[in-house]
Amino acid sequence: MRFEELELQAPLLRAVTEMGFEEMTPIQTQAIPAVLSGSDIIGQAQTGTGKTAAFGLPILQGIDPKKKALQAVILCPTRELAIQVSEEMHKFAKFLHGIKIVPIYGGQEIVRQIKALKSGTQIVIGTPGRVMDHMRRKTVNFNDVKMVALDEADEMLNMGFRDDIETILKEVPQERQTLLFSATMPQPIMEIARMYQKDAIHIRVVKKELTVPKIEQYYYEVRPKTKLDALTRLLDMYSPKLSLIFCNTKRQVDELVSSLQARGYFAEGLHGDLKQQQRDRVMNSFRNGKTDILVATDVAARGIDVDDVEAVFNYDVPQDDEYYVHRIGRTGRAGRGGRAFTLVIGREVYKLRDIMRYCKTKIKLQPVPSFDDVMSVKAEKILDHVHQVIESDDISRMIELVESRVNEEEYTSIEMAAAFLKLAMGDSVDSEELKKEYDDFGDTGAEEGMVRLFVNLGKKNNIRPGDILGAIAGETKMPGRLIGSIDIYDKYTFVEVPREYAAEVLDRMKNVKIRGKAVNIEPANRR
Ligand code: ADP
Ligand code: MG
Whose CA is nearest to atom 1 of ligand 1? Predict the structure, then answer.
């Protein structure tokens, strides 16, 4: 459905057009007509689906610009979100006249807010705590309020704002419209809806529409020890402009941030323990690209609206199916493409299968890029840049310098270019140790996610598949059913085991005997 099909005032339509909105999102299609017709609504949809416009446009339509009194209150969980919603509302109101919208949150000078409230503000967007503050001081008057919106209601409850919200709702005249938006609908939200709304229309954007189909989704099977490496390799390989990395706990956020910083990445963390001021600082430096990696918990990242996130990483597999959708929805926003990467250890792959089923989406298994992959991509990028410089810059002076050197020395200009490339790629190129650490087993010719191991016993030693299976299952914690193909030849055998167990299998099988013969086991040669 298109915005023009709505009974919206021309100035609002003009603003929406100028913002580049073409058609409405599903939550907007359902919510806006309902709100315009005067109904209370409960709107449930994931982050990034345009809920602000879903309540913001009909609220603006309902304001009487001649009346210089507070007419609508929007409550948001955090200062960050209040500012974001306020900015979006200002854009919607660009062509309307006589409408004053003010954000009200803690940490900002209260005198200034009081002045703004006195001078004919019609729409307030505030955090519950600060709005309560003004109620106590009697610096806000709700007598003419006709509309109240609760944005990210579940989050406000999580943050302990339930009493404040109820106090505010009780203070607003009964003759009003109450709009409640929430990503999830736990019991307490339903209670608030029952107590403070009238015949609310429940709008739920069905799960199928929750996925963001433009996003390429991949997963990688890793071991706990190689998880960080896999992440940094993906970061190096794709070098996304902005990356959002999700962890399941605050502690993991802190640990990962330290590890990334130690490796020279510009990463910062965001979680519930940070003070508002720190939060603002982190968000600002992410927004303007000073920090290109933001590591966050689900709750902390909720509602953050940054458009240029090119990649989302699930460092931990999300605990909740719905979280997966929320997380990956942070990239590929506003029609841009994006990528989502999930790191999976062992059995977590089953959780990921559930997610795929729930989201009706395909998450493709990919091998973690090898050291050589990362190096070639890095080199490719530098060489592309060199190409640009040759095309468009004046490099005649440099040519002279290179020429005279090459004439004096024994080497060719190709060798010189190669040396430059090495310099530009940094120290990481020739560290053999790093290469080894990077590559675990490389491509041993096994199936995706498996490593092929060479065992020095075969048909001549009367080896049967059960012997190999029994030995491995007996010596390691790996369940026998995870063992892949077993190919027995005359003098040796190849057996495939899941990548994440390969190191353990190699370690445990070193001193084992099968049919009285000492076993020698090692990764099959790389392809
Ligand atoms: P939510 O509150 O559901 O997380 P927002 O209201 O913050 O989502 O919207 C997310 C982004 O999508 C914003 O940048 C917003 O300007 C943009 N947006 C909203 N509605 C539309 C639309 N109909 N078409 C294109 N972009 C939209
Ligand atoms: Mg929102």
Answer: 48
- Domain containing 409 equals 373-426
In this structure, which residue's CA is closest to atom 5 in ligand 1? Answer: 50
Q: Is residue 210 part of a domain?
A: no
Q: Is 329 in the pocket of ligand 1 (CB under 6 A)?
A: no
Q: State in Å: Cα 3 to ligand 1 middle.
A: 14
Does the Cβ of 18 fall within 6 Å of ligand 1? no
pTM of whole model > 0.70? no
Q: Choose the residue to mutate in 52, 81, 203 for probing ligand 1, maximizing ligand atoms within 8 Å of C-beta.
A: 52
Tally of structural domains, the chain: 4
Rg (CA), the chain: 29
Q: DSSP letter string over 494-516?
A: EEEEEHHHHHHHHHHTTT-EETT
Sign of CA dihedral 379, 382, 385, 390: negative
Does residue 438 register a pLDDT over 50? no
In this predicted model, what pLDDT tens digit does every residue of 325-365 receive, in sequence order? Answer: 888 888 876 666 789 999 999 878 888 988 888 777 889 99
Q: Which has the closest alpha carbon to 247: 317, 304, 184, 183? A: 317
Say if 514 falls within a structural domain.
yes
